[in-house]
Amino acid sequence: MHVYDLAPGAHGWEVRRRGHRFAAAVRATRDSALNKAQAIAKVNRPSRVIVFDPDGSVETEFVYDQL
């Protein structure tokens, strides 16, 4: 299962596939980054998007199962 973390970074909100060094996408706003993360996750099912607050705690999680 692919896991994508959505968290604030140095240049905006980062969508990063867990275990990868570089962000898959960086967006200025949380909502824009969440939309991008969900689009990536839906294409790469089964997958999860885990959204982190600025303090590092988990805010919410989205799960995308097989088609």
Tell me the radius of gyration.
11 Å
Mean pLDDT: 96
Structural class: alpha+beta
Give the strand line-up of the largest sheet.
3-2-1-4-5
The major pleated sheet works out as: 5 strands, mixed
Counting DSSP H or I runs of 4 or more residues, the number of helices is 1
pLDDT < 50 runs, ≥5 residues: none
List the secondary-structure elements in sequence, H or E: EEEHEE
Question: How much helical structure, as a percent, in the residues?
Answer: 10-25%
Number of domains: 1
Beta-strand residue percentage: 35-45%
Shape: globular
Distance between the termini: 13 Å
| Strand count | 5
Chain-wise SSE layout:
Elements (H helix, E strand, L loop, with lengths): L1 E8 L2 E6 L7 E3 L2 H14 L3 E6 L5 E7 L3
Parallel strand pairs: 1-4
Antiparallel strand pairs: 1-2, 2-3, 4-5
Q: What can you see in these coordinates?
A:
This protein is an alpha+beta fold. The chain has one domain. It is 21% helix and 45% strand. It has one helix at 30-43, and strands spanning 2-9, 12-17, 25-27, 47-52, 58-64. The chain has a 5-stranded mixed sheet, with helices on one face. Strand 2 (12-17) and strand 3 (25-27) form a beta hairpin. It is globular, with a radius of gyration of 11 Å.
